[in-house]
Amino acid sequence: QVQLVESGGGLVQTGGSLRLSCAASGRTFSSYAMGWFRQAPGKEREFVAAISWSGAFTVYADSVKGRFTISRDNAKNTQYLQMNSLKPENTAVYYCAAGIDHSKFRYHSYLDYDYWGQGTQVTVSS
Known about the structure:
The chain has about 130 residues and is mainly beta.
């Protein structure tokens, strides 16, 4: 069982930055692939970024490449999402997710993640 708690959301102006954190419980954090998804009002949940158990592999949605950076610290059971150059269309609830990493893990697919946080609101004003 893994419990995930996000933090770091808030209100920021266009062009600003935020750093989201996701703290995980449990002793097997390093076995999990970690991801960030978001859901805006009236829209479906969408993939943002993911990172492999070791941190060696990262993948991003095209819309955030070059602006967002995902990272993790397995010693602290925490993953991060650094968001720069934020835009109003980035406004959403951001969710942290975890799934057992393996060779066929589909980092983009929410179906492969077993555990989810409660979400943190990110609002970007224009």
